[in-house]
Amino acid sequence: MAGFYDYVRGRTDELPEGYSEPGLRAYRHLVLLGATQMVEAHHPELRAQLGEEAWLALMRAFVRDSAWDSPFYGDVYDEFVAFLARTSA
Predict the structure, then answer these.
(1) 76-85 contacts: CB < 8 A, separation 24 or more?
(2) Is the Ribonucleoprotein keyword given for this protein (predicted)?
């Protein structure tokens, strides 16, 4: 199962055994989209201030490197704040 999560979060591009690439790409996109929408809902100005390229880089880094492990998208915001504190320290 770790291979699935690592692929979906962008930690690896190695396709885990038993999964199709199109299906996992869709999951990866949905996880990034969900996290992005939750963070942007709390900080709508952040995306505009960073610009699209930097915003997407930040969100990909968050999804890949954060300690976010809750199945609830509502918990994303608190982990995003903690992620920023850890990475900017």
Answers:
(1) 76/34, 76/35, 76/38, 76/39, 77/38, 77/39, 77/41, 77/42, 80/35, 80/38, 80/39, 80/42
(2) no
Name the token pair of 26.
Answer: 């869709």
**Residue type (1 letter), 40:** E
Measured CA to CA, the distance from residue 23 to residue 26 in angstroms comes to 5
State which residues form the domain around 48. Answer: 2-87
Q: What's the pLDDT tens digit per position in 29-64? A: 999 999 999 999 998 899 999 999 999 999 999 999
Provide the domain count of the chain: 1
Nearest to 36 by CA among 52, 20, 49: 52
The C-alpha angle 27, 16, 25, rounded to 5 degrees, equals 25
How many helices (H) and strands (E) would you count in the chain?
A: 5, 0
